[in-house]
Amino acid sequence: MTHWFHRNPLKATAPVSFNYYGVVTGPAASKICSDLRSSRARLLELFTDVSCNPEMMKTAADSYFSLLQGFINSLDESSQESKLRYIQNFKWTDTLQGQVPSAQQDAVFELISMGFNVALWYTKYASRLAGKENVTEDEAKEVHRSLKTAAGIFKHLKEAHIPKLITPAEKGRDLEARLIEAYIIQCQAEAQEVTIARAIELKHAPGLIAALAFETANFYQKADHTLSSLEPAYSAASPKTQGRGALGLPPLRTGRHRGATSPKPVE
């Protein structure tokens, strides 16, 4: 389990000032823009802060996303989108295609990309906990919970926000349906591996462990099938794992999670 998700880097992004001279008038509007800038910077810092925990991440993410909603939804709670949705250009790199950024002048693109990084953080946090020498029962539950949270975020982005993009996701990019679905399934599979490891530790019946392993193997096969239609250049870099629990092998203890390396700023 120590090899979970340490392969794919976090998405990097260009700084955003949220300075709209001539558009923003009044101290209240200026305060909101200042809070947006600081809350975005704070969230980006936490992605690579080894002392960050899920509670800190949730607080920072909620703070930024609640402010960003003003750039997406109309303030009068109508079905109309905000007039500010397309005022700012956002740049983000891809987890699979190196430091080549994608850019869209769309606040929904920013919400999805930042949310994607939040989900990735939960997988890396789970990996770090699982890589400890002696994982307690509470820590195992936290690993399981973090992976389920990541899967839920990916699923929400795919179903609720990605369809709203004016510019469709590029082929082989993170936000393409097949890739984000693979991330969802892998999170589910790795959460199931926690259940298998616990069942082995508690010496549950071999039949139960075998059934769980078979179900987990099906998760990985489904992820592989989801990616099978991608071109080789994309699928070679896709988020696949060996699924040792699904193969009936003991959890990996041969390496250390390398942690979340700080993504380089995008020009």
From TrEMBL:
SMART domains with a match to the protein in the record: BRO1
Gene3D superfamilies, A to Z: alix/aip1 like domains
Pfam family, one: BRO1
Similarity comment text for this entry: Belongs to the BROX family.
Protein name stated in the entry: BRO1 domain-containing protein BROX
Disordered: region residues: 234-267
InterPro entries in the record: BRO1_dom (IPR004328), BRO1_sf (IPR038499), BROX (IPR038898)
PANTHER family: BRO1 DOMAIN-CONTAINING PROTEIN BROX
Ranges of residues in domain BRO1: 90-267
